[in-house]
Design a protein that fits this description.
Blueprint: H1 29-53, H2 56-82, H3 97-125, H4 132-154, H5 161-190, H6 194-222, H7 232-240, E1 245-257, E2 260-269, H8 275-290, E3 294-301, H9 317-324, E4 337-338
Parallel strand pairs: 2-3
Antiparallel strand pairs: 1-2, 1-4
Helix pairs in contact: 1-2, 1-4, 2-3, 2-5, 2-6, 3-6, 4-5, 5-6
Biased composition (Basic residues): 335-344
Subcellular location: Membrane
Transmembrane segments: 31-52, 58-78, 99-118, 130-153, 174-192
């Protein structure tokens, strides 16, 4: 059996100097576990009180807290998996385990929101007797518990989509408990039982918002979309302005996992240009201006893959192919960016 325990020294020529593949070891487990303990203990009591008071608002809050607890557990598991070194067929390791758990959490939120929304609408038409005093007291305790849980999670690393998603859910719970407390107060003072169902619908709306956001953000990572806030065309225009760069194509920008953008591109440099100097300059620009430290750049001179014939800069790929008998990249993915005005 071959021994795979060997070093990989990229030096700087490989285009990866200065970046780290490890997810921040900073997602503090102690704070996450503290928040998880608060949430689970209170959730269990809330379920009991919710059924005793026949309050759908309290049961809705408990269901939301269940997804919060699940998201924290999944975050802890995913953080452990993501720290495993890349090996074998998993060349990025298991970094996207956190994205899988975030997406599962988002889908669960949407399913719970659909069920609770149906129940809430039903109770609007046929409201049961709700014990407003129990609802009010439990909701006020819930506000305190969620403030404590939010404070604990604010101490942990929130660059992870999982941890940030769980943190936002705790804040959503806080708002939901405030709405439930208001509903309990209305029931106690006026006897308006439908206030409980209305509060449940508010919780449902918050769950839909949080779930949609998690599914959208995790979906963008799985579909290899450019990170939010980074426009590939703008990045290409910035790079093409660099000295000696004539063309950029096969430009891809994606996220390995939340907070870890990566880029690859094929760069064509003017004949006689210093390819190594151009690569170092482009990587410096990507690191300093876009915080992209994982950049793989293939840098060639214009026309060097076509022998002595130069690529016809400024003409379409088809025209260039007809003129030279072959294209520089016969299967180019995405737009070609050239120096000077050009359409995207």
């Amino acid at each position: 059996m071959s021994n795979h325990e060997h070093d990989h020294d990229h030096g700087g020529s490989g285009g990866h100097a200065g970046h780290s593949h490890s997810i921040s070891a900073d997602a503090d487990r102690k704070w996450l576990l503290s928040a998880l303990t608060l949430i689970v203990v209170f959730m269990a009591g809330e379920v009991v009180v919710g059924f005793a008071a026949e309050s759908l608002a309290l049961i809705s809050d408990a269901a939301h807290m269940l997804t919060d607890a699940a998201s924290i557990v999944l975050a802890l598991i995913a953080m452990r998996l993501s720290r495993r070194p890349a090996r074998g067929g998993y060349t990025y390791g298991l970094k996207r385990a956190e994205i899988l758990s975030a997406q599962a959490n988002g889908i669960t939120l949407l399913l719970l929101a659909a069920w609770l929304g149906y129940e809430a609408v039903t109770r609007l038409f046929d409201p049961p007797e709700v014990t407003g005093s129990l609802v009010l007291v439990t909701a006020l305790v819930g506000v305190v518990v969620n403030i404590g849980a939010a404070w604990c999670m604010s101490k942990a690393n929130r660059s992870s989509l999982n941890v940030e998603g769980a943190f936002q859910h705790v804040l959503t719970d806080l708002y939901a408990f405030i709405a439930t407390a208001v509903a309990g107060l209305i029931i106690v003072t006026t006897g308006f039982g439908r206030a409980d169902a209305i509060a449940s619908l508010i919780v449902v709306a918050l769950m839909l918002k949080a779930g949609t956001g998690l599914v959208r953000d995790s979906g963008r990572i799985f579909l290899e979309a450019a990170p939010a806030g980074i426009d590939p065309d703008s990045v290409a225009d910035r790079l093409i302005d660099s000295s000696e760069v004539e063309e950029i194509h096969d430009l891809h920008i994606w996220e390995i996992t939340s907070g870890q953008p990566a880029l690859s591109a094929h760069i064509l440099v003017a004949p006689g240009g210093d390819c190594h100097a151009v690569r170092r300059n482009l990587q410096r620009t990507l690191r300093d201006e876009y915080r992209i430290t994982h950049a793989t750049l293939q840098v060639d001179h214009v026309g060097e893959e076509l022998g002595q014939e130069l690529l016809a800069i400024g003409r379409s790929a088809v025209e260039a192919g007809e003129a030279s008998g072959a294209e520089h990249c016969g299967d180019s993915h995405g737009p070609v960016h050239r120096s000077g005005p050009h359409p995207h």
